[in-house]
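Forum: Protein Structure Q&A
Topic: Joint prediction for protein chains with partners

I've read a bunch of threads here and the consensus seems to be that you should model interacting components together rather than docking separate models afterwards. I'd like to see that in practice. Below is the full input, 389 residues plus whatever partners are listed. Could one of the regulars post the assembled result?
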Amino acid sequence: MDRAEAETILIIDDEESSRTILTNIFQQEYRILTAQDGFEGLKLIQENKNDLCAILLDSIMPEISGLDVLYQLNMAGLTQLIPVFLVTSDSRAAVVREAFQYGVMDVISKPVAPHIVQRRVAAVVELFHTRRRLGAEVERQRDQLIYQTRQLAEMGMGMVEALATAIEFRSDESGEHVRRIHDITCHLLRNTPLGAGLSEETIKLIGVASITHDVGKISIPDSILNKRGRLTPEEFDIMKGHTVKGAELLQYFQQAEPRIGLLYQWAKGA
Amino acid sequence: MERQVRQQLEAIGVQVDEALYRFMDNEGLLLKFLLRFPQDENFGALKRAMDRGEVNAAYQAAHTLKGVAGNLAIEPLFQAASAVVEELRAEQLQQAAERMPALEEVYQRTVTTLKELGA
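Posted by a regular:
Agreed with the consensus. Here's the joint model:
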């Protein structure tokens, strides 16, 4: 619902000369709707609420009073969206106090002085328009930010996957190993008590983290990594060091995806 | 505005410049409302409500009459109607009734002149 350019003013007054005077003031710049009593006014507000930029409301009318109309608009939350001006010859403190309590924007005294009512209404209408435009702009920027953050996170994940696959190739294993570890991890988390209480998003994240379990092997010399037969105790110590190297390496990725490093620790510990 | 029309309006206390300003110098629109004023039913409604002692109905009619007189800047009528409105707002029917003859006199004078203007 785009109310940014709403430009209809509703005039609710039981007396014809008052309706005509207000119409005459505003008809150059706004579309005008008029109602002769509160009931008709409420009906028109229901039907046109997305087009109304202001409501000029007489206070003393037969059937239901202006304050009654205002009260109902306030209850419906509409005084937040559409500025209501009470146009009244009765500006006793009690009336004004009650009007502001019910969310009136301004009280204008009758008989009206055209320039005063024109300027006051136009200023508020402009304010509401600007506020709505700014609100829409902020919302658009927030959506864009969320989208970009998500794209960045996906890029980070892609880098982790590429890195893990490269390591597996180096240690003479096919890239399929990475895929299988990922799939098995996710399968176990989805279908066994291991994954109890984890959201699908978390499961996917752990799946990606699982493929980094051997990423530290990039720092292990080929002679040890691909050695046929038993490792010497010294070689085994170096081999074991791949977990520490892996953790160090993944710290660089934390900028792109802060959760990866933590999950690596978790995967190694498990 | 024609001088003669203006003079007649001023004779019944219409503040012509004030009224013209309210109608944003739309003289035709102002005269239309002035000449139509004798058909306004609020004074009659006020009298009937006063006779029946119906404070609320009397207040509504007096208030509307005051509003029209204010919009058209018929100052003496506006003042006389305001006096009645104030009493009725305080639900002082007796005091309101005491102010009715003054209002009626101004009202008749206003209507007579406006009818002549319209003829």
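Residues 114-170 of chain A form the longest helix (57 residues).
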